[in-house]
Amino acid sequence: MTSAKGVKKWVRTICRPIVEGGRVVRVRGSIQDITDRKRAETEIRQLNAELEQRVRARTAELEAANRELESFSYSVSHDLRAPIRHIAGFTNIVREACGAGLPEEARGHLELIAKAALRMGQLVDDLLAFSRLGRQAVRRQTVDPRHLVEECLRETVPPAERHRIETRVGDLPACAADPGLIRQVWLNLLSNAIKYSYGREPARIEVGATLGPDGPEYYVRDNGVGFDMRYAHKLFGVFQRLHRAEEFEGTGIGLALVQRIVHRHGGRVWAVSEPGRGATFFFTIGHPS
């Protein structure tokens, strides 16, 4: 309605007819000024429209960034792997061509080159896996962790080494997870446990689960070299290592992969340790949303 001063206002009218002798003789009601409320509703609609526009713009930016990352991954895969293959290939050619005539010192240099090329190739593969993981969909289904653990142990413990490694697998409750991704978690944790307990007689690897406030807390425990808890915050960073590469091989990406996979499932991962007394790595799997 329009006021006497020509100002347009929103009003809410409530009225009730008064009937006498079968006829409506008057109307009783009230008129409420709701101009402020309508103005607020209009502002909210405008803000929602602006927010939706921002979301669309941000989504487009993320999609463009993902395409660029995909292109970068392809470039890394093609442009870096090819030179690495050439280095390894020509190293073998030189060794085979020279045969027994190759001086021992030169043979040692070629061996170092071949090992460096192999490590660089593994580093490129791990970086690509870490990059792709952020875009890979998590397809949950019921998973039997014990089956995955036993499979990973067969893969990581060579038959010739099984006599020196004691493994114990406890009860592992089923969980809803992506089988391929969660297998990678077990594989990395078990590989680390075996690697860092090398030299122990015997090496002991224990796998199990305890019940925590958010469900099962799975763990992998070893009796290896352990680490200082003061540096635990570095464990899951890319390229972060708590031991020298000369002591233990690796690219420094395995635990970063573990953390990213666990976080993609809505879970947590952490570790407790003491130098010389082994380490225990725990992780949880979040509930499906």
TrEMBL record:
<keyword id="KW-0547">Nucleotide-binding</keyword>
<keyword id="KW-0597">Phosphoprotein</keyword>
<keyword id="KW-0902">Two-component regulatory system</keyword>
<keyword id="KW-0472">Membrane</keyword>
<keyword id="KW-0418">Kinase</keyword>
<dbReference type="InterPro" id="IPR035965">
    <property type="entry name" value="PAS-like_dom_sf"/>
</dbReference>
<protein>
    <recommendedName>
        <fullName>histidine kinase</fullName>
        <ecNumber>2.7.13.3</ecNumber>
    </recommendedName>
</protein>
<keyword id="KW-0175">Coiled coil</keyword>
<feature type="domain" description="Histidine kinase">
    <location>
        <begin position="75"/>
        <end position="289"/>
    </location>
</feature>
<dbReference type="Pfam" id="PF02518">
    <property type="entry name" value="HATPase_c"/>
</dbReference>
<dbReference type="GO" id="GO:0000155">
    <property type="term" value="F:phosphorelay sensor kinase activity"/>
</dbReference>
<dbReference type="GO" id="GO:0030295">
    <property type="term" value="F:protein kinase activator activity"/>
</dbReference>
<dbReference type="InterPro" id="IPR003594">
    <property type="entry name" value="HATPase_dom"/>
</dbReference>
<keyword id="KW-1003">Cell membrane</keyword>
<dbReference type="GO" id="GO:0005524">
    <property type="term" value="F:ATP binding"/>
</dbReference>
<dbReference type="InterPro" id="IPR005467">
    <property type="entry name" value="His_kinase_dom"/>
</dbReference>
<dbReference type="InterPro" id="IPR036890">
    <property type="entry name" value="HATPase_C_sf"/>
</dbReference>
<dbReference type="InterPro" id="IPR050351">
    <property type="entry name" value="BphY/WalK/GraS-like"/>
</dbReference>
<dbReference type="InterPro" id="IPR003661">
    <property type="entry name" value="HisK_dim/P_dom"/>
</dbReference>
<dbReference type="InterPro" id="IPR004358">
    <property type="entry name" value="Sig_transdc_His_kin-like_C"/>
</dbReference>
<feature type="coiled-coil region">
    <location>
        <begin position="37"/>
        <end position="68"/>
    </location>
</feature>
<dbReference type="InterPro" id="IPR000700">
    <property type="entry name" value="PAS-assoc_C"/>
</dbReference>
<dbReference type="InterPro" id="IPR036097">
    <property type="entry name" value="HisK_dim/P_sf"/>
</dbReference>
<dbReference type="GO" id="GO:0005886">
    <property type="term" value="C:plasma membrane"/>
</dbReference>
<keyword id="KW-0067">ATP-binding</keyword>
<dbReference type="GO" id="GO:0000156">
    <property type="term" value="F:phosphorelay response regulator activity"/>
</dbReference>
<keyword id="KW-0808">Transferase</keyword>
<dbReference type="GO" id="GO:0007234">
    <property type="term" value="P:osmosensory signaling via phosphorelay pathway"/>
</dbReference>
<dbReference type="Pfam" id="PF00512">
    <property type="entry name" value="HisKA"/>
</dbReference>
<feature type="domain" description="PAC">
    <location>
        <begin position="1"/>
        <end position="46"/>
    </location>
</feature>
